[in-house]
Design brief:
The structure holds 2 protein chains of 2 kinds. By secondary structure, chain A is an alpha+beta fold. Helices cover 45% and strands 11% of the residues of chain A. Chain B has a single domain, classed as Orthogonal Bundle (Cytochrome Bc1 Complex, Chain D, domain 2). The chains are: A alpha+beta, B mainly alpha.
Chain lengths: 272, 201
């Protein structure tokens, strides 16, 4: 099944994306062709399978406390899922900190269902054989904000502080290669190899940090969330590894999401 | 009485310090959070979060340090360039091409340095169209600049430590951090400087 899909994908790429002869321009044809291809694939995005699994996980009593997540408060009241993803990260009084969607879901799995943080954080990212439950649940929650405008909260002092701290993290150069997030994502019109690099400091481009996640990645055939995306960015930044669903990640996501506020979140994505 | 006053002053100082911590700058907040919410993985230790003098200056001055500091840092970086003991700066351009193509190395999944990842950011040889645009094109590097010793030394030192010339350059310091070996840097220098390299044909 997966092999068949990958073959279909390869054929489709070959059909719509002839390899370019020269690509000195920033608006390169590979990216444009891939956007077309992505639009076709979104018609039947495998991400929907994970959304369905996530919904089931949300509703089923599970864990040591045998509870469902239907009392989980994602910021709009216990159990309200519709629109919640588009309004995170936000401040949660019960933990006195800002949380992004996946961090909040992990929190609910710990407090309501009795799962242990160290178990959830041990292997938090999807492999070819296993998709962690928080990934599926985040996929379900995100899909219920499709078509809504991003409206991360910026009223509580800690929400404003998270934005400023996230901005500092974004521009902080360190590590073996002296990179910051901004090394790749702070300038207009740059490319790494053939991959265009959006400038996340600009509102109209910052949406590309959020849009398409959670997304189904055709390379390897796995479902990934923003937690994975930022983790892999830090890996390639040659930094140490960020803690899964940590406050630091929520702060960086606050910076990125606030920069994109007001733009439409189109829902689950598909990635090469 | 005097003791009481001293105690009150000490208590007051403690309260002030606590307030300062609560209202710490975003930078202090970010540093504290990063220190707490990253962990060492593989070869990527927590020491990587600590700024050296170049990184500190670029962070503090948003990549434009004052001229005097800029010159001082550049001088220090240049002084740290270790020149090949045999005096030869050009290796094998064919090996250099492989190193330029290879973007692996220095992440927590690697054992150490591997490649230079040059094509990630630069146009170099004529046959690779999947090059990045973060750095300038290096196509015809030697042909345009000349093949003399000065340019050879410039190319080698730039690969060894880009900050010796441009202190807040986005280019990694491959020799300085040990991401490339002396032999690898010679090979990449040859890719740019050998008249026989496709870069210069």
């Amino acid at each position: 099944m997966r092999q068949a899909l990958m073959l279909a994908v390869a054929a489709a790429v070959a059909a719509v994306a002839p390899w370019p002869q020269a690509m000195a321009q920033t608006e390169d044809p590979v990216a444009a062709d891939f956007d077309k291809f992505r639009a076709i694939m979104e018609e039947a995005n495998p991400a929907e399978l994970f959304e369905a699994k996530g919904e089931q996980l949300w509703r089923t009593p599970r864990g040591p406390k045998n509870a469902s997540l239907e009392q989980c408060d994602l910021g709009l009241g216990p159990g309200v899922v519709k629109g919640a993803y588009a309004q995170m990260p936000r401040y949660f009084a019960d933990v006195d900190r800002v949380m992004d969607a996946e961090a909040r879901i992990v929190h609910c799995m710990i407090t309501l269902q009795g799962f242990k943080r160290e178990d959830l954080a041990k292997k938090p990212f999807s492999s070819a054989t296993k998709t962690p439950d928080p990934v599926s649940i985040t996929t379900y929650v995100a899909a219920q904000s499709a078509g809504m405008k991003l409206a991360p909260q910026q009223t509580h002092p800690k929400e404003k502080a998270a934005y400023e701290i996230g901005k500092e993290i974004f521009f902080y150069r360190a590590g073996a290669y002296d990179f910051s997030c901004a090394s790749c994502h702070g300038v207009d019109g740059q490319r790494i190899r053939t991959q265009p690099l959006p400038n996340f400091t600009r509102p109209e481009q910052a949406i590309r940090a959020i849009q398409g996640w959670p997304g189904y990645r055709m390379t390897g055939g796995v479902m990934h969330t923003l937690q994975w995306r930022l983790n892999d960015c830090f890996r390639q930044q040659r930094f140490p590894e960020p803690d899964y669903a940590s406050e630091m990640m929520s702060a960086l996501l606050t910076y990125l999401t606030v920069n994109a506020q007001g733009q439409e979140y189109k829902g689950l994505g598909i990635k090469r | 009485m005097r003791l009481g006053l001293a105690a009150m002053m000490a208590a007051g100082a403690a309260v002030l310090a606590a307030c300062a911590a609560l209202q710490s700058s975003p930078r202090d907040g970010a540093l504290a959070l990063m220190q707490r919410d990253f962990h060492a993985e593989g070869i990527a230790g927590m020491d990587r979060l600590k700024e050296d003098d170049v990184q500190a200056a670029c962070n503090k001055y948003k990549d434009s340090p004052p001229a005097e500091l800029d010159a001082k840092l550049r001088g220090k970086q240049y002084a740290g360039v270790k020149w090949p003991a045999d005096g030869k700066l050009l290796g094998d351009w064919k090996a250099g091409e492989k190193i330029a193509q290879n973007g692996r190395g220095m992440t927590w999944r690697d054992k150490g340095g591997v490649g230079g990842g040059c094509y990630n950011c630069h146009q170099i040889g004529p046959d690779t169209t999947s090059f990045g645009t973060i750095g300038p094109s290096l196509y015809q590097f030697g042909k345009l600049r000349g093949y003399g010793t000065d340019i050879q030394r410039y190319a080698y030192a730039k690969i060894y430590n880009a900050k010796a010339y441009n202190v807040c350059s986005q280019m990694p310091r491959f020799g300085h951090v040990g991401a490339l070996t002396e032999a690898q840097m010679k090979d990449v220098t040859a890719l740019l400087m050998d008249p026989a390299s496709p870069v210069n044909r």
